[in-house]
Every structure is written in structure tokens, then in C-alpha cells.
Structures
1.
Amino acid sequence: MPISIQHSLAIIAVTALCTVLLRAFPFLVFGGKKEVPKTVRYLGDVLPASIMAVLVVYCLRNIDFAAAGHYLPSLVSCLLVAGLHFWKKNILLSIGLGTVCYMILVQAVFV
Amino acid sequence: MENMRSKKEYIGFAFRQSMPVMLGYVFLGTAFGLLLQNAGYSFVWAFLASAVIYAGSMQFVLVSLLTAGAGLLNTALMTLFINGRHIFYGLSFVEKYKKMGKAYPYMVFSLTDETYSVLCGTKVPEGMDENKVFFWISLLDQSYWVAGSVIGALAGSRIHFDSTGIDFSMTALFVAIVVEQWQGARLHFPAVLGAVCGLIWLVVLGPDEFILPALCSCVIILILARRRMEPDMGKEEG
């Protein structure tokens, strides 16, 4: 271990505490006895779709267009997943084949 | 009618729902465990970190914080920065989780990107208690993550399997969920808004800093657009 046990534990504890505080924030603010504000209820309905789209961008944030091998594996595999899912609506099939496709592309095609 | 499904049925259904997460969590967890072990920490530490922190990308940063012997203030700021997006997930579940009784704190604690996505996409079958389904999915997801971490720390260096690219399963999960929501939604504006805000802020701020501004702009624009959205939403909710 590079540092003392106490210091390691303290770093893990602080990370855990900050993470759970972030996750608990909306519940601490809106989760009391009072009724949930209408705006929050509305956001609860519409925000997930926005968040998912942002998360896709987040997963792809590190691709660049300097060489085909930097962006084609992700883009091709994402299109495959989307296409499969539109067609078959089977989440395991979409994710499984998409991931296999990506792995083959990064390991064997664009090396 | 009171639903009397057995615990086995609940776990079985939750297991099928959580399978997409299993693949990614076991492999990413293994990568984390291996990394932590290489930094000089045994599997006990991997177990501890995955049990109490339970945040994928942050735990990879944690390894570098540990090896650098980072200060606690620095650790706190890094965590708030990297996990800031988690603030938004609870908004969808405030009302639901309030009624969850004993499981409430755990449900809040375990709301990761992936669990959030799966729960948003889960349609609970007739006769099943949604709270129980949600609880089992959340618990199974974390167990995959913890199991992966421990496996990685114990056996990581002995696994001879080129898993390069397996982390794409998380991207694939989010893409599939976007498609699923797209097909089920009457209004496509929120999804398009998310993609546009994400891309604009990514171009403006770069990969490390774009996600919080992107999520904030989505929230602000959705609130501003509420009047125009709600007449259609009433029907959709039904």
C-alpha cells in the first residue's frame, strides 16, 4: 500500500460520503412530508429521456476523428445496437451483439 | 387484489431485467479490482470500496487518489465533480422511493447510472409489487459490481482473456434504452434535447467538463418548455 491504512480509509470514506450526498440531494430537498412540487413531478417524467441521451454522449465523449479507428468502432457498434433494438426490441441481444461487434472491431479490425 | 408472488419470482424477474447490467458490471468491476490490487490493496479493499462507494468511474479515479495519497478536500472536490450528474437521477424517483419503507435509504444509495437506466425502462408485470422489483434490481446490480471487484482483485492477473472493448456494453445499454424510450414516448423533444445539449457542451467544454452544464441546460429548457409539453403529457401518463 502506498499510504497508511488510516489515510486510505479516510479517502474511501470521503468518496463514499460525497457520492451518497449527491444521490440523496433531491430526496433531502423534495422527499419530506410535503407534497412534491409539480415541476419536480413533471421533470421526473420528461428528464429521463434527456438524461439517457446525455449519457450516450458521455460514453462517446473520448472519441476523436483523427483516424477511422478512433471513431468507426463506436459509431458502427452504436448504429448496430440502435438498429437491432428498433427491429427486435430484445435488450440482451442488442447489447450482446453490439458489444461483440465493438470488441472485434477494436481488437482485430482497427488495431 | 393482494399480490402474493413468491420471493423467487421477484428475484427471477429482477435478474432478467438486470442482466444487461451484469455483463458490464462484472467486467468493469474486475478491471477495478485488478487496478486496485496492482496499487497494493488486497481484495478486502476492493470489496469495501465497491460496497460503500459504488460508483464506477469514480472508483477508477479513487485508485489514483490512493496511490497519490490525495488530500481529503481534494478527494471531496473530485468526487463532487465526477459524480455531480447523480444529483439528477433522484428527481424521477422522489415520490416513488418515499413510500419504500425500510429499503428507502438503500434505494437512494444505490442509484447509479446503470440502475437508474434499468429502473426507468422496467415495466413491472401485472400482480407484482413495483417496490420489490425495484429493490431486487438495485441489489442485484450492486452484487455484480462487488463480485466483479473481488474477482478482479483475487484473480485478475491470472485471467487470460482479452476483454478490450467490453466496457462498450455500458454504452450499448444506454443506446438501447434511448431507442426503447423513443419508441414508447409520444414526445421526442426530451431525447433530442439531451443529445443536442450533450453535443453542444461537449464541443464547447471538452470531454471532462461537459456533462453537468449539459444536464443543467436540459433541466432549464424542459422547465421553460413545460407549458407546451404538458397538454400532450396528460394523455401519455394515463
2.
Amino acid sequence: MSLTEAYLSLSAIMFGIGTLGVLLRKNTIVIFMCIELMLNAVNLSFVTLSREYGQVDGQVYVFFVMAVAAAEASVGLAIIMTVFRNFYSIETEDVHDLQG
Amino acid sequence: MSEFTVFAAMPFILLLSVGFGMLCWDLFFKCDRLVWLLAAVFGAWGFAIPQYFVAETTMNDLVYLDGYSLFFYTLILFGTAATFVLNHRYLAKQNVRTSSDIDMLILLAACGGMVMVSAANLIVLFIGFELLSVSVYVLCGSARKERASSEGALKYFLFGAFSSAFLLYGMAMVYGACGTLSIPEIAESVTSATPMLLLGIGLLVFGFGFKVSLVPFHVWSPDVYQGAPVSITGFMAVVVKVAAFGSFLRVMSVCFGSIQADWAALLWTISIITMTVGNIVALRQTSIKRMLAYSSIAHAGYALIGFISMGDAGGVEATLFYMLSYSLMTVASFGAVIVVTSGSEAQYENDSIDSLHGLGWSHPFISLVLTVSLFSLAGIPPLAGFVGKFYLFKSAVTAGYTGLAIIAALNSVVSLYYYLRVVVVLYFKGERTLDWAPEKSIGAGPTIALATATVGTLAFGLFAEYCYPFIVVAVNGFS
């Protein structure tokens, strides 16, 4: 297994762990951390592929992704705050008024 | 080329500068913001009009200037203008923040949508996607004191961030397979379907599927549509969906059109599941917002037909026309719902279909708008919804997917039931007995917005053959 393949596999495993975390965990903050893990797994793929192709493009994309993830984190935590104010909980099983 | 670059950026610059200006507006001014917001929206559209006559990429090949972008700009900006007009009147009556930051977020979301549909590089597309999404997460939760609103925002945020991770992973796989993320260069390098490329396409479909709420990625959308303030729901149903479809269609047709045979089966399956599940679940909804949410899921399924029949059969053009008719009738239907529910103090409790009863006689204009838009959504001739479906089904038959066209036609028959049920409630359930009712006079702005959407629904149905050539020209520019 070449180094590129090894890193791509690592990234896929991290992405899978993140996905499983989103699907299985109940605490919204932990779910959100798993989403961040998925984004970072993608970043690892970009950097690996960038090195494989000998381009700088992939590494530049990572900066965009990191900036976007930071913006998303600030908005997400604010939303979790408003949910806590209304529901006094951030567990997904407590936040389910809407259904039908 | 170089002098055109600044010009090409003007729509974005205008929206962003007015948007950020709105942040400080409340500090300095007390006068009405609406005129300035509409000026920004129409100004942005005006600056984009010359794009109809060119077809090229600009800004270091990051942005397309073509009729295709202009077409989607038009729909996005029309939806944004209608949202401003309706929001303006509606927010004042509800338990929702009315300060100018809401306007800023709407402008930023519109700008993000425009970046998405004109992006010539997948990472630019991703930036636009996130600008749109993050703004709409906040808009969704803008009724901070309402439990439903914050719950909707949380669900939208979690599912949205989850799906954008998949979208991004898809882009990474495409980058791995093609060595570039520039859409024209991907189009050149894609000749055969390698496993990595197919994985990338699958993940991209996953990511976009969440945004346009295709089944099985739709679970968030009814809750979010119901939980968000209703004018924001209208914005999501029109602008977010149209922008996501515009970029999805561009990516699939330009980048991966040459290996369409390898992914057509996937979208064929998703299309059928989406329209069937959307229509069948819509049958048993009692909340009008949830009913319209499932109806918009079903419509995403119809619009997907054009992806399967693209090429000589004219699927791309048919999808564009369908997006046009979809946004007109959705603005009209959600606009009517916004006006109706704003008569009630407790908008979040009073969104059931039964609460519309008797309005047909006491509020003829709103009821007429709602009736026409629902007939159009159901696909009754001669309205735009019918013509849109006709073009889509025709392209499917031409491309050899007769079964798909038949299933879609059967689905439209099923959908008649739940659309007509609303019309029956409006006109044939006797006098109104509820103690609240919408206002008699809804003001000039909402009247104009609703009338434009309704007349447009009728006009694009009757005169479709005159506007279809413009869409064909718009599409010819790209690819």
C-alpha cells in the first residue's frame, strides 16, 4: 500500500467514524463534533491528493473548508443555545415537537 | 474580458454591500428599508442581464457568465424580492425579530444561491452552498422564542452540515479522479467511469439530494418547513431549492454528462421514489405547511426527470422551464399562506388546512391566488405547472424512458386529491366559524407580488411556446 492509499484510507475511516457518530449519538454537541470530524477527514483527502498530483490547489481548498467550518460552528453553537433556552435540553430525543 | 470582470461581479458586490449596510441600518435610520432592498435586488438583476448574450468563464475561470446563470439569477432574485415584500408585512405581526439583520441574511442567502448557480469551480460552488445554507439556518431560527422555530433550525443545521460534509467528500473524490475541480476541466477529463469518480458522483448526489430534499434524504424538510417562520419557509421552498437544482443540474450535465449512462439508473430510482413518497405522504397531512413541504418534495422528483433525459431529448431545457413554473406557483401558494396565517396571533398553532375554511367567499383575492397556484402545482391545464410537466414527460418519452413518464403522470393524478382538498375547504365548507381571519386589505406590495406570481403562472402556461426558445438559447451557451 502506497502512502497516498494509506492516507486516503485513513481519511475514509475518519469519515466513516464521523458518520456513525452523527447517526448514533444523541447529544447535539457531540453530533456536531462528529460533523467536524467528517469535514476534517475530507481535508485530509484533499491534502493527500494535492500531494499526489503535485499541485497546490488541494491545499488551498482546505483553507476554504476550514473557514467555512468555523463559520458553521459559530452559527451551530448559537442555534444550540436557542434550543437550550426553549427546551432546557440539547438531547435529540427531547427536541421533537414537530412530527406528523 | 477584463473590463467585463468587474461588471460580472457587480450583482454579487451590490447584494453583499447592501446586505452589510443593512447591519448598520437600524443605528442610523428609522425610515423604511423595503425600497432599498428591492433596489438592490433589481439592480443586481439589471447588472446580470448582459450575460444573456455571452457564454464564457471569468475571474480566473471561477465563474460562468452565461444565459443559464442569468436564468437562475432571475428566479432567485424574483423569489428574494417576493420574500422581502411579504416578510415586511408579515414579520411585524408575529413573534419574530423585525430588525434589519434578517434582511441582511436574506440578501446573503440570495448571493450564495447566485454563486452556486454560476460557479465554474466546485470549491466556489461549495462556498456559495455554505453562504446560502448558513444564512438560512439562522433565518429558520429567527423566531427565537418559538420552540418550533428553534427546533426547525437545529434540525436544518444538523442535517445541512451533515450533507455538506458528504458533498465535500464527493468533491474530494472527483478531485482525486480528475486532478482538478474546475468544471470545464472536469468535463474534458471525464471519459470513462472509474470507481473513484462514481463514488464521487454518488456522494455529490447525496449532498445535493439533501438540499433539494430528494427521498431518502428528505427527512428534515417537513419539520423544517413547518418550524420556520412561514415567510422563510417560502424562501426556502423557492430560492434554496432553485439554487440547489441549478447547480446540481450544471454539475451533472456539464461535468458528468458524457458518462450519463452510468448514473442515470441511480437518479431514475431516486426520482420515482421521491415523487411517490412525496405525494403519498402529502395525502395525510393536516398542516398546510407540511402538505406544501411534501408537495415540494414530489416536485423535486418530477424535476429530476430532466436529469435522466438530458441531451438531445431536451431534459435540461425542460427542467429549467419546470423550475420557472415551480418558483412562480410556489411563490403564489406560500405567499397566500403567509397572508392567511398572519391574521392569526398564534401562527404556529393555526396552520391546519381546516383553518382555511370559508375564506373563498370572504377573501376572494387570496383564495383565488391559492386556488390557481394549487391547480398549477397539481398540473391542470392551461397553467404553467401543466406545461412544465408536459415538457418533462415529453423529454422522458423522447429519451426512451416511457415507464418513468407513466409513473410520473400517475403521481400527478394522486397529487390532485390533496391539492383539490384545500380548494374544497376554501369554497365548499360553509361560513367561517373561527374567531380569526386574515385582513381584508393586504397592502399594495403583497398584492403586487401575489398578482405577479399568479398572472405569471397563467401566462407561462398559455404562452409557453414563446418563452421556451429563450430557455433553449440560455442552455445552448453552456456545456
